[in-house]
Amino acid sequence: MLRSIRNALHRKRNCELRHGNIKRFFGQPAAQTHPHLLQEGEVTPGISRAEFCYRRQRLMEAIWKTKLHRKSVANHIALFPSACKSYMTHDIPYPFRQNTDFLYLSGFQEPDSLLMLHSIPGKSSNSFKSVLFVPKRDPDKELWDGPRSGVEGAVDLTGVDEAYNIHELEHYLQCYCRDTDSFAVWYDYIRPCHNDLHNRVLAQFLTQNRHTAMETTNQLVQALRLIKSPAEVALMKRSCEIASEAFQSVMQFSCPGVNESQLYAKVDFECRMRSAEFLAYPPVIAGGDRANIIHYINNNQIIHAGELVLMDAGCELHGYSSDITRTWPVSGQFSAVQRLLYEAVLAVQESCIQQCTTQNSLDDIFFHMLDKLGHQLKTIGLIPQNSNKDSRLRAARQFCPHHLGHYLGMDVHDTAGISRQTKLQPGMVVTVEPGIYIPASTTTVPAEFRGIGIRIEDDVLITDSGQTVLTEKCPKHPDDVEAMVRS
Fold it and tell me: How far apart are CA 231 and CA 211, in angstroms?
């Protein structure tokens, strides 16, 4: 039945094309509708159909290499639901952001969809089919919410083998079960990203079919996402450039008496004016002692003369994130104590960046950070001069309670399932973000140090020869920072 419907649709479309009376709209930017964003053959800006096809191919190859395939199971079906719309109140949705695993493998931006990759029963073990299930074209709903790609648009846009309306998913799964004796299901059933689709269709499929094994997909997909392609690196570099330029503008805009919310608005504005879709996460914009709250996001206080402002922000450009932290004096000049602490953090950060090579993991560099930070605290006089190595490391953990950094990519805390003990490889992007935090309530240090929080963060691409700082355009030397604020 599905095949006959599909053939009829193809005949109708070919007829329309021959008579020149078809006008195609999509549920996302496409080369036909947004030539200023996409080139012909791209699914999302900068990423081609060929690259998305290659990603799907590599995922299936990874599945075929698992012990499960080698020992017992010949057929596999992998399910990747999209994100769903989330509503702040009746009929008022939050801004939509696509599930990143689904986006990484398909490039399709519409909610309430699903990507299926499955082996073909009776064919060679390295054959598979890619199928998208998408929202049905609906003139009434499209009047309110905008165009949908529909079945044909999804195939034209993404290059998958087939596409069907999402309500046909259950029947397709039933047919697959009927035609396949045994198979493994690959699906993140522990934390489903689309609860309605899971509860209505997928949970029933998992409990009633004849699958012989069930596995999650997150580790396999994250292993692919960890290493960025040249196209991904180019997008991340531009995302970092946009955020760096936005930071410069915010520094110039800063002045005593400014509200943190105004700096929030400024960085959001500057990123969007440079073509970023939105900020990559709720930014931290913390004046004075509030910088010692690591994830401070209230951003609603006045920053007074003589205080430092710590801003942790980044943008998302065509699905790829940047993540920067800078700390600067809102009055345009560091005090002697502020500069002393700032230069200590900067020395540690620059040393850690040099350690971003294929010989080290993030955990290795984290322990390097603790060692260097302990020595800085001793030099400054915040810990006793006779401190041994163990006490220096404990003090470093007290003054900097977070890790050195994390992987960066489509998500800010990207590929979170990948261990930080993994040796760095060319194509990875990581953050390097040491800090020193001294809450005003700290009584074990001289009074002039209390209430100061400093963090410096850059985004670093691992290369064959070492590393490249993608956020190098964002000022961080204290002289350059002061000059930028005063300009």
Answer: 37
Which tens digit of pLDDT belongs to each residue from 177-213? Answer: 888 888 899 999 989 999 999 999 999 888 876 677 8
Name the catalytic one among 274, 402, 420, 450. 402
Residue that has been written with the tokens 């105004």 in this structure: 262
pLDDT tens figures, 280-338: 999 999 999 999 999 999 999 999 999 999 999 999 999 999 999 999 999 999 999 99
437 is annotated as an active-site residue: yes
Backbone Cα Rg of the chain: 26
What is the pTM assigned to this prediction? 0.92
Chain region(s) in the chain for CATH 3.90.230.10? 227-486
State the catalytic residue, choosing from 392, 407, 437, 458: 437
Strand pairing category for 76-81 and 184-186: parallel
Domain 227-486 top-level CATH class: alpha beta
Residue 375 known to be catalytic:
no
What CATH number has the domain spanning 2-224? 3.40.350.10
Question: What is 203-267 written as a DSSP string?
Answer: HHHHHHS--SEEE-SHHHHHHHHHSPPHHHHHHHHHHHHHHHHHHHHHHHH--TT-BHHHHHHHH
312 is catalytic: yes
What residue spans in the chain does CATH classification 3.40.350.10 cover?
A: 2-224
| 36 has catalytic annotation | no
Of 304, 310, 303, 265, the residue nearest 284 (C-alpha):
310
User: Rounded to 5 degrees, what angle do the CA atoms 48, 50, 51 make?
Assistant: 70
